[in-house]
Amino acid sequence: MSWLPTLQTNTPEQGYELAIKLSRMAVKKTQPDDETRSSLRHDYANNADSLTMASHVVATNFQTVAQANNYWRD
Amino acid sequence: MSWLPTLQTNTPEQGYELAIKLSRMAVKKTQPDDETRSSLRHDYANNADSLTMASHVVATNFQTVAQANNYWRD
Amino acid sequence: MSWLPTLQTNTPEQGYELAIKLSRMAVKKTQPDDETRSSLRHDYANNADSLTMASHVVATNFQTVAQANNYWRD
Amino acid sequence: MSWLPTLQTNTPEQGYELAIKLSRMAVKKTQPDDETRSSLRHDYANNADSLTMASHVVATNFQTVAQANNYWRD
Amino acid sequence: MSWLPTLQTNTPEQGYELAIKLSRMAVKKTQPDDETRSSLRHDYANNADSLTMASHVVATNFQTVAQANNYWRD
Amino acid sequence: MSWLPTLQTNTPEQGYELAIKLSRMAVKKTQPDDETRSSLRHDYANNADSLTMASHVVATNFQTVAQANNYWRD
């Protein structure tokens, strides 16, 4: 099964989770080694600017997911 | 209850507050420890570029929220 | 009264001013102390990259405001 | 007269020039002193990353201007 | 044959792969030497912020691809 | 003749090339000296983060060009 079968979600919160998943997947595709990513995670989880940068990526992906779901207006 | 039940808000100002909430939630999901986030907050709240970066994330999320609300034009 | 009663403005220039206001408000919400912000201002107002970063945030907010006003085409 | 009477331009090239103007105006509003800006200009005009950052801001503003002009398709 | 014959893809996952391809192509056009890119890859694949930056570019391109495919809603 | 007569291109690949052109033009307008740009090019073409930043600008401009061409769907 695909890791990304659809951009549709039932709720905004699920859409936000999908945005996080999309953000992490690009990292995983560039650095496939789980252990390396895990150690890097410690770095950026304790650095304010790194966290802000990560939040920016989520925000960008959330734009896409929200639009795909017509902002869950329907 | 969901932390994000809807992207709809009554006013632009509430929409802006929601954009801030969205920006912080991504940080919280990456660094769930309240104390760590609190200490990091001190770092970036006193650094001009960090504040600008944070404002950029809010701006990105505000785009999403504003569009979800049809810019509160109705 | 709300600091953000509407995204509608009469002219593009007023829309640009609103974009600046939106950009600064996120900073203010993160660093509410006026004196601290004032001293930080000196830092980034004299650093080329800081100014470019600030301009990027304004550009992002101006996208939102311009769209809210249908680009003042009407 | 306003420095930004309209987002409409006759040609894409004029639209690009307007995007540059919008990008610089945010800098000017933050650092109004001409001489300071002039000396900072020397800094970033000789730094590859600074130039890339500046180009990113222009790209963001060009999105707005291009959309305002319906991509000069008409 | 073109490396980019179309922005249409059958599935969201293929769209995401295309977004990665678009992100890497700009790098390739700036640094065409395979060996140099390969050695740089090692650098950024082991740096948290570099990976986040790369993920941001993918997110930006994924916005384009997703919109081109009408979010695979049809 | 204008360096940017239109945003319309026949193919996605040509659109991508135009996005690169738009990205470089902003740099050229800020640093018009060919020799300086050429020497800076060496800097950023050998730095992973600089290349990622450049790719981000291309992605932003490609959003504009792709939308101007209705994603080459027609």
TrEMBL record, chains A, B, C, D, E, F:
Pfam families on file: HTHP (PF11534)
Record-level Gene Ontology MF annotations: peroxidase activity
InterPro entries documented for this protein: Hexamer_Tyr-coord_heme_pr_HTHP, HTHP_sf
UniProt keywords, alphabetically: Oxidoreductase, Peroxidase
Protein's UniProt name: Peroxidase
